[in-house]
Amino acid sequence: MSNSQQPLSRLIRRARDLPTLPRTVLEITETINNPKSSAQDLAQVIATDQVLTARLLRLVNSSFYAFPRRISSVTNAIVLVGFDAIRHLMLSSSVFDVFHGPHGPAIDGIEQFWDHSLACAVGAKTIGNQMRYDRVEELFVAGLLHDIGKIVEMRFAADAFQDAVDLAQSEQLLIIAAEKRVFGFDHQEAGRMLAQRWNLSEMLASVISWHHEPMGAGPFVKEAAVVHLADILSRALRLGWAGDARIPSVDTAAWAALKLDTAAVEPLMADMARTFQEMKTVMRPNRNGEPS
Amino acid sequence: MPSVGLDAVAPGAVLSAPVADFHGNLLLDAGAELTPRNLRVLKSWGVTMVEVDGPPVTEDPVTPPETAATAAGGSVHPVADAQSRDQNPVMAAIMDAAGKVMNRHTDGHEDP
C-alpha cells in the first residue's frame, strides 16, 4: 500500500480544482428557475448543445417514459416531461461527462463503475414507482450521483483509491470500510463536499452523504432509503462494479420506512435489470463527447 | 488442472483456481471445497466451468439449485454477509430474487 493517507481537509483544499458543471446546464437551471420562462425559451437553451439535445430526444423516446408516439422536437419533449424532469435529466446526463472526458480519472473499472451508478439510478426510479413516489426523476438523479465521492477520490487520490480497492479485495471488505482505513474518510464525505461545491439540492446532498446509513438523512430518510436499497439491489444483480465484491446488508429501519413487501422484490429487480440494459445505451457517456 | 464443467464436479472437490462471475468479481477462492451448497451457489451465479483438484469429477449432474436464498446461505463470501442473510429475511428475499433474475438471463429467457 502506498503512503497516501489523504485527509479530507487536503481534498477540500483542492476543491477549487473540482470541475464545474457545463455552462449549458447552468443556463438550463437559470431558465427553469425563471417563472417567466416558457418551454420555447428552455428549448432554445438546450438546442445550443447538440449532445444534450440528442440525449434528451433519445431519453424521451426510450421505455423510460414509454410515450405512445415518437417525440422529435425538444419543445414537445419539454412539454411532455416537464421543467423539473428536464433539469434533473440534463444534470444527470452531464455530470458523468464532467468526469468521464479526457481529463477524467484513468482507473481500471471506470466503465463498470458508471454501470453501477446507472443501475442504482434505475433501481431508485423503479423502487420509487413501486412506492408511487411522485418525483421519480429526482430519485433517478440521486441514484446516479450517490457514489460521486468515489469519483472525487479517483480523480484526486487515484493511488490511494486503488489501495482502498486492493484492500477491499484482499480482506473482503466493503469499499467504504477500506476507504476509511486508507483515507480516514469515505466517499459519502467526499461526495458531500462536491455536492456543496455544485450547489446540489439538499435532498441530493443528503442522499450522497447518507446512503449507507439512511436513517441519518433527516427529512430525506425516504429518499436515502430508496437509494440505499437500490445500491444493494444493483450489487445483488451484479450490474456494474462499486469498488468491492460484497453486498452490504439492508438497513432494517430503512426497509421499514419504504413500506415495501418482500414479495415485490423479485418483479422489482426483474424490471430494474431490464430497464438498466436500455438505459445503458441511452445514457452512457463517452469519452469523445459525441452522442453514442 | 484443466477446467471441467460444473455439472460434472463431485461434491468434495477442491478448487485449484479462484472462481469469478462474468464481471470478474470473486465468488470462491482457490482451495475452497465445493460442497453441495457451494456448487448450487456457483450454478445460480451462472458459473459453468471450474478448475478443481482432489476427488475426480462425476458424470452425474449436480442437483439443480433450490433457491438462491437457501443456496446463498453457504460460505460464498463475496456475495452477501452470511450472517445478514441468515438473520435478515429481506436480504434472503433479495438474494433469492437476484438468483432467479440472473438465472433467467443465463438461460436466455430474458435480458436482465
Distance between the termini of chain B: 33 Å
- Poorly predicted regions of chain B are 55-83
* Unreliable sequence segments of chain A: 286-292
Q: Which two protein chains have the largest interface (Cβ within 8 Å of the partner's Cβ), and how many residues from each?
A: A-B, 28 and 30 residues
Tell me the total number of β-strands of chain B.
5
The share of residues in extended strands of chain A comes to: under 5%
Number of strand segments of chain A: 0
Write the layout of secondary structure elements.
The complex is a heterodimer of chains A (292) and B (112).
Chain A: H1 8-13, H2 23-33, H3 39-47, H4 50-60, H5 74-81, H6 83-100, H7 110-131, H8 136-145, H9 148-156, H10 158-170, H11 175-182, H12 187-197, H13 202-210, H14 221-236, H15 252-258, H16 265-283
Chain B: E1 3-5, E2 14-15, E3 19-20, E4 26-28, H1 36-44, E5 49-53, H2 68-71, H3 82-87, H4 89-106
Antiparallel strand pairs in B: 1-5, 2-5, 3-4
Task: Tell me what the structure shows.
The complex is a heterodimer of chains A (292) and B (112). Chain A is mostly helical and 292 residues long. Chain A contains 16 helices and no strands. Chain A is globular. Chain A starts with 7 loop residues before the first helix and ends in a 9-residue tail after the last helix. The C terminus of chain A is likely disordered. Chain B is α+β, with helices and mostly antiparallel strands and 112 residues long. Chain B has four helices and five strands. In chain B, strand 3 and strand 4 form a beta hairpin. Chain B is globular. Chain B starts with a strand and ends in a 6-residue tail after the last helix. About 26% of the residues of chain B have low confidence. At the A-B interface, helix 14 and helix 16 of A face helix 4 of B.
